[in-house]
Amino acid sequence: MLSAWESFYVIVGSSAGALTGLQFVVMALVAESEARAGTGEIAAFGTPTVVHFCAVLLVSAILSAPWPGLGGAAISIAVIGGLGVIYAVIVALRTARTTQYRAVMEDWIWHVVLPLVAYVALVEAGATMQRLETGALFTVGAAALLLLFIGIHNAWDTVTYIAIGMNAKSATVAVSPTPEIETPQS
User: What letters, b where the CB count within 10 A reaches 16 and e where it falls short, cover 71-110?
Assistant: First the structure.
């Protein structure tokens, strides 16, 4: 059953690996920008993106391995999902504690709610994989894609935030009012 998914996981896993490297570039941009993030913001918004990409890479590797049956793969997927659920709760707590940036609804959805949904889906898929092979494997595929898209969205969100933040600061400096020159009255 897993051999039918080989191409899917080669594509998804390769994408996750490449995008993990891209997130390192994003973090380099953060480090060089004038709008530096604090460690709390990086822990809430930057690090989870790398974790999600790595989870996709790990799921892809696990389901591409030559398992003799689905038992080992099912347990592995359920464990990854369980650890992901715990991590999503940790990210929620970190997000609530950020001081330099206050999360808006979109941030809560993309950084907390959707990853939690994906990791819960992995737990469920791992728990049912031996009984409901096809459905469980599609659930794992959907969860992996969701985590991949979450990572892409969040990396892009970070880059655009930096770009807009830097442009806003530059615009403020460039458009600062000139002092008025008093003209003598005659």
Answer: eebbebbbebbbebbebbeebbebbeebeebebeeebeeb
Verdict on whether the full-model pTM lies above 0.85: no
Summarize pLDDT for 99-148 with one digit per residue, the tens: 888 889 999 999 999 999 999 999 999 999 999 998 999 999 999 999 99
Torsion of CA 64, 69, 72, 73, to 10 degrees: 40
Q: Tell me the CA distances in angstroms from 72 to 69, 75, 81, 129, 163, one per residue in order.
A: 7, 5, 14, 10, 45
Task: Count the Cβ atoms, other than its own, within 10 Å of residue 161.
Answer: 16
* Angstrom distances, CA of residue 118 to CA of 35, 88, 121, 164: 31, 10, 5, 30
d(CA 113, CA 120): 11
Report the alpha-carbon angle 134-138-139, nearest 5.
115
* CA separation for the pair 42, 38 (Å, rounded): 6
- What is the spatial distance between Cα 2 and Cα 51, in angstroms, rounded to a whole number? 24
Distances (CA, A) of 114 to 108, 126, 136: 9, 18, 19
